[in-house]
Structure formats: C-alpha cells, structure tokens
Amino acid sequence: MKWLLLLTVFACTASAADVTGTWKGTAETPNGTIERTFVFKVDGNKLTGETSSQMMGKSVITDGKVDGDNVSFTITVKFQDNEMKLNYNGKVSGDVIKFHVEADGGTTLDYTAKKVS
User: Fold this and answer.
1) What's the gap between Cα 59 and its chain centre?
2) Which of 71, 72, 75 is nearest to 84 (CA)?
3) Rounded distance, CA 64 to CA 98, Å?
4) What DSSP string runs through 28-90?
5) Is 104 helix (H, G, I), strand (E, B) or coil?
6) What is the pTM (predicted TM-score) of this model?
7) What's the mean pLDDT in 27-49?
8) What does the pLDDT read at residue 11?
9) In-domain check, residue 82
10) Which of 87, 91, 98, 95 is nearest to 26 (CA)?
11) What CATH code is carried by the domain that includes residue 46?
12) For residue 23, with 0-12 CB atoms within 10 Å meaning exposed, 13-18 middle and 19 or more buried, which class applies?
C-alpha cells in the first residue's frame, strides 16, 4: 500500500514539466536564422507568459498548457499589417524544447529553444 501511495505522489509531481523561465529559440528558414525569446510561467498545468522577436515584436501567450513533457500555446503576431495566429506544440527534454509551429494558412516552422534562466 505504501508503494502505491509513493507512486501516486511521484506521478502527480512528474505530471507537468516546469518550463518557468526564459528560453531562447532559433529556427532555420530559407531566408536565414530567426530568433524568438520565450518567457514562461507555469501554474499547475497552465502556461502563461510572452514571446518576442525582432521581426514580429512581443506577443502574449494564450491557451497555454503543459501536459507531462508536452507544451502547447498560441500567440497572435502582426506581419505586414496582418494578424496571424501561430500554434506552438513542443516537447521538453531537460533544458531544451523542440517546437513545431503552425501558422494560419498552413505554413510550418520548427524552433529549438534552450533555457537561459
């Protein structure tokens, strides 16, 4: 019975990766490398925060979730006077998150983010 209790406690504490902090991400595109900074806050399974890049400025994270090692959220960016939603899905492995990003219209991009603080 004690083992069952210990396993239950461990499962609850291991259920969500703690990605709280600042992460720097890069993605390779046909036009070169682009960078984005992510500032995450985690409360239980809820992910909040913001992201920023030189090209598209600052965006607030919405619909953020952490489920085990999986992270997902949406941001809205303004590009050439048009708003676009970007849907991020990532997998945490230590101090690295591999993100797959899908934009309205089907464009995709992959980021590798590393924790900096």
Assistant:
1) 13
2) 75
3) 16
4) EETTEEEEEEEEEEEETTEEEEEEEETTTEEEE-EEEEEEBTEEEEEEEEEETTEEEEEEEEE
5) coil
6) 0.84
7) 95
8) 46
9) yes
10) 98
11) 2.40.128.380
12) buried
